[in-house]
Amino acid sequence: MKGRSVAPIALLVALSVATELSAQNRTAAATTAKGGAHLTYNVAPIGNEARYRVFEELASIGHNEVIGKTRDVKGRIVVDANGAIVKDSSKITVNTQTLQTDSKRRDNTLKTQTLETEKFPEVTLVPVSFDGLTAEIPAGQEKNFTLIGDLTVRNVTKPTKWDVVARRQGNDIVGTAKTVFTLQDFSITKPKALMVLTVADTVHLEYDFHFSPSAPVDVVK
């Protein structure tokens, strides 16, 4: 009789302890996940355009600004719970084979001589850090800050600074980022073409971006 009464009591105690430990484990896991949650901002299907601007001098009309652009942009930026960029998970890719100006002859020279797009079909930007962005972008307001990122052109990688103007559009982030580099920075030879007297050394890059957030990913370290 005594043995029979002890067994149910022991079972209740064991269940109570197990329930408490389970609750503690769930709390610890939730705390860890909250501290390690990463938020991914994906390049949206629309609203993205990458451009370059460079001046040339033509024998026929003199100085002329060339604008090449493409909407073939893919990638994402991942930020951690503190708003810092997760570099190893972030990359933006531009398809150089789809760049177009107002001249097919110029585009062909760019693809075959300048960028050699068959050999180097992509330009990539790996975001590294934000400078001047200390909080989330409030709805209806613009934020000016600097993005530091590693830009790769023709397999040459250089650190770059981008001047960014961004605003929140619902849950999305939209805006424009701009940077400047020289042809020498990426070992690019000036293109040679009929009627082109010279091409400027300085290249301006612009990126109209539209990022959409995906669900947070809990990272347990």
Topology:
Elements: H1 2-35, E1 37-43, E2 49-58, E3 62-70, E4 73-79, E5 91-95, H2 104-114, E6 122-131, E7 142-153, E8 156-169, E9 172-182, E10 196-199, E11 202-213, E12 217-218
Antiparallel strand pairs: 1-4, 1-11, 1-12, 2-3, 2-10, 2-11, 4-5, 5-6, 6-7, 7-8, 8-9, 9-11
For the sheet with most strands, the description reads:
8 strands, antiparallel, barrel
How many independent structural domains?
A: 2
What would CATH call the class of the largest domain? Mainly Beta
Instruction: Quickly give the structural class.
Output: alpha+beta
What strand line-up does the widest sheet have? 1-4-5-6-7-8-9-11
Query: Could you give the order of the helices and strands?
Result: HEEEEEHEEEEEEE
Q: Give unreliable regions as ranges.
A: 1-35, 217-221
DSSP summary, beta strand count: 12
Helix count equals: 2
Strand content: over 45%
Radius of gyration: 26 Å
CATH architecture of the largest domain: Beta Barrel
Distance between the termini: 51 Å
Mean pLDDT: 82
CATH superfamily of the largest domain: Lipid/polyisoprenoid-binding, YceI-like
How does this model look, in words?
By secondary structure, the chain is α+β, with helices and mostly antiparallel strands. The protein folds into two domains: 1-35; 38-216, Lipocalin. The chain has helices spanning 2-35, 104-114, and strands at residues 37-43, 49-58, 62-70, 73-79, 91-95, 122-131, 142-153, 156-169, 172-182, 196-199, 202-213, 217-218. It has an eight-stranded antiparallel barrel with strand order 1-4-5-6-7-8-9-11.
